[in-house]
Amino acid sequence: MRGPPAGPRILLRRLREIMAEPINAQARLDKIVAQIAANMVAEVCSVYVLHSDGVLELYATEGLKREAVHHASLHIGQGLVGTIAAEARTLNLPDAQRHPAFRYLPETGEEIYNSFLGVPVLRAGGTLGVLVVQNRAHRNYHEEEVEALQTTAMVLAEMLAVGELSGLSRPGTSLDFKRPIMLSGLGLCEGVGLGHAVLHEPRVVVTALIGEDAERESERLDEAIASLRLFVDDMLSRDDIAATGEHRDVLEAYRMFAHDRGWVHRMHEAIRNGLSAEAAVEKVQSDMRALMLRQTMPFLRERLHDFDDLTNRLLRVLMNKPHGPGSEELPKDAIIIARNMGAAELLDYDREHIRGLVLEEGGPVSHVTIVARALGIATVGRAGNAVALVENGDAIIVDGESGEVHLRPSLDVEEAYAEKVRFRARRQEQYRLLRQKPALSTDNQRVRLLMNAGLLVDLPHLTESGAEGIGLFRTELQFMIAAKMPKLGEQRALYADVIAAAGDRPVTFRTLDIGGDKVLPYLATAEEENPAMGWRAIRLSLDRPGLLRMQLRALMQAAEGRELRIMLPMVTELGEVRKTRAMIDRELDHLRRHGHKLPDPLLLGVMIEVPSMLWQLDALAGVADFVSVGTNDLLQFMTASDRGNTRIAGRFDPLSRGFLRALRGIVRASEGRLPVTLCGELAGEPLGAMALIGVGYRSLSMSPAAIGPVKAMTLALDVGKLQHRLDGLLDDVEADGNAIRQALVEFAEAEGIPY
How far apart are CA 695 and CA 690, in angstroms? Predict the structure, then answer.
């Protein structure tokens, strides 16, 4: 007759001895289940492992028929074992055969056993298998027995994670932990990246699972928690943290978790059961992740990121590791994986080694996306749970066009994407051959193709892409990646480098477009309910005249006798242009008095991105020298749709009749008065650029990568024929919905135009 349970601490110690023995994986697993059965006074102990095809296979057993090992299996959701795997929850049953999910496997000989205790084998909240004990007697297993089995399951999870059991897999399958996964996100920067994953914030790997001195481990945990609470409280008390707002909410969530007694109690309980402090934190984190991932309430799922961040900080405190990106050497084909990151953090990486970027958050207009686009890095945002699913070194593919991320891809997927990369390379070579050609349509209509830029790393693209100049230089990017306000000399040096790189090609500098989603950490701003329509761009600059004057002076000094084109963002009324013009005149007087060489000429432009300007175009020629249409914001404001809101951002088509009529109206109103350029995402799509040429635009500014495809489209286009077709559609009151986009597609296909 078996004796009483020996306790989880003794069990863990014996398991550690088994793990150290020089035996093969199957023999080790057989010894482990035998040891668990003996320790828990169980007649049966079995381990089921989840495969990539959703099948749970019996890998080892003590008490059931040995010949059933690697032959008995259940699908996920099937039977008691499948239910535990599907729901990631423990089942403790005195009479298992009466449970509605019970399924009898005749090959195992389990029909004589009644009581059943099964726990999921979890890692990072994901289920890797199921650990089960059974007895003939009808009984409920005690709470300490449940905790012991859950703790033991953590040891099994580590065996699976390091791949020790991979060799036991059935042919044609792999363990679930290493299965291929496809994540769907939002394509932010076009391109395909094949490489290996690098976690921006590497997870701490816990190697010492078993604690020798429970009292000392508890003390270490308490000290680390106290340090963590102090960090959170200190952050909340800082003067630069607003009293309200999103950052405050996140830190309040941190404080809520850090002071949660239940969380701390569960970690101490895991230590009492034999785990080290670090392993206890990891076990409770994994249990909580499994629970929160299965919640239907969005609020609870959103709090998962806060909980993960907090526990990772706690692990780093315990293991005396700095909180931040690892210093490991990057592989040559690095795919950076992050929850989110700042633009400056991305620039800290060696650009030569980065093939892609995957963000759990991030949007089309976020700072890091703008920089990634400038660097030509394939980027996918809103890839849910990517950080938890990825291990450093995992093979990964990023498709910045479709928004797909393939983690640990199968060979056929890898080959398909390798061919896609080769095809893109061939196509880019075709575009490269066009770079010296002017964008001249088949009926001799000349279109000027310019590029958007904002950083020094953009400048080589001027020659590579064949751009005729820079139609939009976003000066705010220098401010966004700096730790403090750039000084006059720093600004002047950047602008001088840009002008020098452009040579005889024009450069249009947009003054600071900060505010809204572009928040500078060193510039205090008030919380706003609708920041996109609030204190930003020219509004902020005119209210902070010192900031604008310093930028204008830096631009003028950098030009040194050459042409200088300055453009004002988000102009709403002509008075804003007149105030800026007066400020420019005062700066010119200042430079003249101090013997500086003045820009020659100095041209002042206005961005048309606020709908109110559509009715002031007739008077604009009296105060401005040129205009540039910003389609991103103009569409946002005309349709009252936040372009950062995923629910509605794609609802309104820029190729709709109403929007194209507005764009055509700008060209017609400016004709003979002011030169017009259009910059925005629409200009960078061949079909969108075709529509813009059709309504009258002859100067387009876009990302460098878009110039080749747009030029190829232009060279095959008969503008007169398109203009006739498009005018008819725009003047047709019945043309609505998707009619114009569809008509443009049909026109391109009929005329053999690449789009």
Answer: 9
Catalytic residue among 45, 200, 406, 679: 679
Closest CA to 577 of 601, 542, 535: 542
Who contacts 402 (Cβ-Cβ below 8 Å, separation ≥6)? 187
Residue pair 24/101 in contact (Cβ under 8 Å)? The answer is: no
Q: From CA 687, how far away is CA 549, in angstroms rounded?
A: 40
Residue of 51, 367, 406, 461 marked catalytic: 367
User: Which stretch of 46-50, 135-139, 211-215, 499-503 has the lowest confidence by average pLDDT?
Assistant: 211-215
Cα separations in angstroms, 203 against 198, 231, 257, 392, 537: 11, 19, 19, 9, 39
Check residue 2 and give its pLDDT. Answer: 46
pLDDT of residue 221: 94
Do 134 and 115 form a contact (C-beta atoms < 8 A)? yes
Active site residue 679: yes
In the chain, how many H helices and how many E strands?
26, 23
- State how far the alpha carbon of 554 is from the alpha carbons of 452, 477, 484, 570, 725, in Å: 20, 16, 17, 21, 47
* Residue 367 annotated in active site: yes
CB-based burial label for 222 (10 Å; 0-12, 13-18, 19+): middle
Q: Reduced to 3 states, what is the DSSP secondary structure of residue 484?
A: coil
d(CA 219, CA 242): 35
Closest CA to 466 of 420, 519, 430: 430
| CA angle centred on 61, ends 57 and 67, rounded to 5° | 75
Reported as a single tens digit per residue, the pLDDT across 377-398 is 999 998 987 887 888 899 999 9
Q: Three-class SS string for 81-143? A: HHHHHHHCCCEEECCHHHCCCCCCCCCCCHHHCCEEEEEEEEECCEEEEEEEEEECCCCCCCH
Q: What's the rounded Cα separation, in Å, for the pair 402 and 703?
A: 18
Type of residue found at 735: A
Structure tokens at 202: 């590497």
CB 178 within 8 A of CB 408: yes
Contacts of 552 (CB under 8 A, 6+ apart): 511, 566, 583, 584, 587
Average confidence (pLDDT) over 536-559: 95
Angle between helical axes of 545-559 and 488-502 (0-180°, round to 10)? 40
425: how many CB neighbours lie within 10 A of its CB?
A: 9
| 423 vs 356, residue with greater confidence | 356
What does pTM read for this prediction?
A: 0.64
- Cα dist from 468 to 293, 451, 504, 631, 681, whole Å: 51, 8, 9, 21, 18
Please identify which residue in the block is written with the tokens 């100049």: 469
Confidence of residue 245 (pLDDT cuts 50, 70, 90): very low
Q: Give the separation between CA 527 and CA 517, rounded to whole angstroms.
A: 11
**Least trusted range by pLDDT, from 20-34, 357-371, 513-527, 593-607:** 513-527
Closest CA to 179 of 196, 192, 160: 160
- Say what the pLDDT of residue 247 is: 46
- HSE at residue 522, side-chain half, CA atoms within 13 A, is 8
Report the distance separating Cα 459 and Cα 453, nearest Å. Answer: 8
